[in-house]
Amino acid sequence: xxxxxxxxxxxxxxxxxxxxxxxxxxxxxxxxxxxxxxxxxxxxxxxxxxxxxxxxxxxxxxxxxxxxxxxxxxxxxxxxxxxxxxxxxxxxxxxxxxxxxxxxxxxxxxxxxxxxxxxxxxxxxxxxxxxxxxxxxxxxxxxxxxxxxxxxxxxxxxxxxxxxxxxxxxx
Length: 171
Description:
The chain is of the alpha/beta class.
């Protein structure tokens, strides 16, 4: 890997509803400072930072996801949809995604990727595996201390799944 390899930090769904809102957990709240430090590290180096935002609309309860998870969350333009205070940095890219996995990663020039955010067992794992499928030769890593799952058990299961699929897990 050359020194000119572009590094990208993907911050998955660090939104209020997943931290202390509709679907918040104490584990999610506990990683905010770690994520903030990781973002600062990438921003200080001038690396690419991409924030994904889980984005739903007023019809959420009528959607397939709404039928499976009947808790309205991350409704566009609400406080719960916003990225948690103190995480955003100038020059970042924002992706609004309406599903767990964003299918447009092939439009980016990803060369070396680190992923952090929420939830390990839903959106982090979905996007990590999509990126590995699109870019099989790049390094993709996930910092376990900067992720949280729906439960600690499902967090660990998702980390194990990603590891089996050649995503490097930072402990």
